[in-house]
């Protein structure tokens, strides 16, 4: 069996698709205060409508109803405990096909070990974001999801969410990938995930470097928290 450290990067659907999904705008909900001038009232409403559209588009990548999987990065280890400071023992695999279904199919294949078992998989906030997003986009694309990743209300035992580990049962405990990595002295992020989809289109090499850095931080945090799955 191998241990897989993974991270999912998402982006918005095409603008034409998003426009069709845009929730209705209700001018009656705009607070115009003491404005009496019809032109000023109209301008206020127009500004609110533009903000309504912009906010929806800005959040689209984080919702599987309005976003899609752009890329999935993996560091694959035979033994995570033997990874050096530069994670040299990990094989980096980045999936990011134009056909989202192909990306999903290939990723789910990596979860499979021999004899019908599942490879241990580690990520950061995967219970809160990555896995639910992958499941819902797989349902959308009719891509089969391997049995055993989800058991009723719970995630499979082979899945480790480092954010969940860090919180120690306290759901209010703060800590991002970047802040925990800095706290443990293992590095820092080298970009902003919000810009990933555009970076993937414009500079694939830089996008892959950003994703690999996130994977290495995740693996180093796992070791720092004593996880050697």
Secondary-structure topology with pairs:
Layout: E1 3-12, H1 15-21, H2 38-59, E2 67-77, E3 91-95, H3 100-110, E4 121-123, H4 126-141, E5 150-151, E6 154-155, E7 159-161, H5 162-167, H6 177-184, H7 196-202, H8 204-224
Parallel strand pairs: 1-4, 4-7
Antiparallel strand pairs: 1-2, 2-3, 5-6
Helix pairs in contact: 3-4, 6-8, 7-8
Give a verbal description of the structure.
The protein is an alpha/beta fold. Helix content is 43%, strand content 16%. The protein is built from eight helices and seven strands. It has helices at residues 15-21, 38-59, 100-110, 126-141, 162-167, 177-184, 196-202, 204-224, and strands at residues 3-12, 67-77, 91-95, 121-123, 150-151, 154-155, 159-161. The strands form two sheets. Strands 3-2-1-4-7 form a five-stranded mixed beta sheet, with helices on both faces. The protein has a two-stranded antiparallel ribbon with strand order 5-6. A hairpin with a 2-residue loop joins β5 (150-151) and β6. α6 packs across α8 (204-224) and α7 (196-202) crosses α8. The longest helix is centred in the N-terminal third of the chain and has 22 residues, at 38-59. The protein is elongated and about 70 Å long.
Query: How much helix is in the residues?
Result: 40-55%
Helix-strand makeup class:
alpha/beta
Main sheet strand line-up: 3-2-1-4-7
Largest sheet: 5 strands, mixed
What is the count of β-strands? 7
What value does the average pLDDT take?
Answer: 89
Alpha-carbon distance between the termini? 10 Å
What general form does the structure show? elongated
Proportion of residues in extended strands: 15-25%
Query: What are the low-pLDDT stretches, counting only 5+ consecutive residues below 50?
Result: none
Order of helices and strands: EHHEEHEHEEEHHHH
- Rg for CA atoms: 21 Å
Q: Helical region count?
A: 8
